[in-house]
Amino acid sequence: MKAVGLYKYLPIEAKESFLDVTVETPKASGHDILVQIGAISVNPVDTKLRAPKNEVEEKARILGWDAVGIVTEIGDAVELFQVGDAVYYAGDVTRSGSYAEFQLVDEHLVGAKPANLTMEEAAAMPLTLITAWEALFDRIRINPDADAGKSLLIINGSGGVGSIATQLAVWAGLEVITTASRHETVTWSKSQGATHVISHRHPLLPQLKTLGFDGVDYILCLHNTDAYWDAMQEIILPQGHICSIVELQNPVSMSLIKDKSVTVSYEFMFTRSKYNTPDKVRQHDILTKSAQLFETGALKSTLNQTLTPINATTIKEAHRILESGKSIGKLVVKGFD
């Protein structure tokens, strides 16, 4: 089968940062399904895993953890899907990825593609959707009924996770404030449902106070936790919750966190698959529930750009766009030659 792989970890401008390769088509067994890929989305995790380092792969490494496609083969233990089903998923970071014509994925990490979304619209969603859902409802443990009316600050609201997190928080009944600075990112954040948008280029608390907030109940940090740590300690209300997807790089003071009895957690959407947790089917459930929300119009795809076809040249361009730091929403690559 055709695939896009790498042997060396190089800057994206390097000629061999990605190569068109031919590899053996895998076979499904156990709980795996084999999916013929129709479209994929490129995410920051892809660029981080490709980032320059000294390792050299003996076999081509295939990245990519967002896909939509058709099930072509199922393992003997599969119960959730049949051949011919249209599916979407983010998969498992420890396994071969979606930059390929076919991919094996554990059925427990897969959902039926939302019927009302195009192939490209569906491919844009799984990784960011699961990340946002887990952060809001599994880590912070927001209850859409009991917590309606509470406030959430999303730092970096116009990115892939921030966009769908905004929609999910609005669906849950929260008042959502996001950060953005450029006209196009402010406009995008508002289009996703943000009640207020403040600038990350200026101190956050004074802007919140101007809007009538002395603090917020929840914070979802999606960019540079170190840079925002002190501000988040100030902004979070007593007994609030801060969740981040970006790990701290340096020691930080926890004095206000302790004084306010604030909960701090991390979200990494590959935890369940990487550690084969007993509840990994939760991701199937999240994708299934979300498909219903897409189909009723409660959620919409965050697709903002589509490239074609899936080959080394196009994947390089997708990584270049993401590494520019100016990407809004989600970027999808569709179809092999």
From TrEMBL:
InterPro entries per the UniProt record, alphabetical: ADH-like_N, ADH_Zn_typ-1, ER, GroES-like_sf, NAD(P)-bd_dom_sf, YIM1/Zinc_Alcohol_DH_Fams
Q: Tell me where in this chain the Enoyl reductase (ER) domain is found.
A: 16-333
Show the Gene3D superfamilies listed in the entry. Answer: Medium-chain alcohol dehydrogenases, catalytic domain, NAD(P)-binding Rossmann-like Domain
- Write the record's keywords in alphabetical order, separated by commas: Metal-binding, Oxidoreductase, Zinc
Asked whether the keyword Oxidoreductase is assigned, the reply is yes
Keyword Oxidoreductase recorded: yes
Q: Which domain of life is it from?
A: Bacteria
Q: Under the GO molecular function aspect, what terms does this record hold?
A: oxidoreductase activity; zinc ion binding
UniProt xrefs under Pfam families: ADH_N, ADH_zinc_N_2
Q: Which family does it belong to?
A: Belongs to the zinc-containing alcohol dehydrogenase family. Quinone oxidoreductase subfamily.
Q: What is this protein called?
A: Zinc-type alcohol dehydrogenase-like protein
The organism's lineage is: Bacteria, Bacillati, Bacillota, Bacilli, Bacillales
